[in-house]
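# nightly structure sweep
# worker-07 picked up a monomer target from the shared queue
# config: single-sequence mode, recycle default, output format = structure tokens
# input follows
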Amino acid sequence: MTQAFTQLPQQLDFEGANNFRDLGGYPAADGLVVRSGRLFRSDHLGKLTDNDQLLLAELGVRTVIDLRRDSERDEISDRIDDPNINQLWLPIAAKGADVLTLRREIEKGNINDSDAEQILIQANKEFVEQFSHVFKDFFAVLLDEKNYPIVFHCSAGKDRVGLSAALTMLAVGCPMESVQHDYLATNHCTQAYINGIIDGLNDMPALKSTLQAVKTLMQVQPAFLQAALDTIDTQHGGIDQYFSEVLAMGDVARSRLRQLLCE
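# output follows
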């Protein structure tokens, strides 16, 4: 039975990942529902524990897609112990998505709340303007049945992963309400983790003025996703044209993706 909409998303209890969740349960086109256990989104997998490795095996994960830039991977490489899991690197290296560098700049007092918001809005525009080829490669992976179950992740699992998840949901016909719900769910899925960081900064008086900027950086807002969608509309004439003309996801490919992801 499909979960009630208010119970989505399905967050998994990983010890070393704060934002690992199943895209299953959302309504799609033609009365279908996104299947559980097929496609997962997450923050980085560099702190997975031994128990987490067992959970990955239980989920049957076959493919991990890492959307981070090389410097992020150098600082925290994924811990995937199973050699049979295929690890793919599809970097989206937008300046505004370099969370580690941005956080350091915020802690130095160089970025305030308003700056952080504008940086993330610009980053989402750049995802479309400069990295659509990565989303095309991403969908090529999703269209290959042998790759499932799949986990895709970036550093925080919110911006690059957020747009990737939104595009995937739109491709199989999920309504915008569901897309926005899943996108914004990051804020409550990571609330305890963010509160822990903020509490730590509260003990550092020199950084108190940057607390809201840190919070903005680590959360998502409707305006962030909307910036990407507006760029798609402006530059490509709408989401359907973007899928077919830029991402090689025309009607046939989208129907195939529904077959792979929905029931």
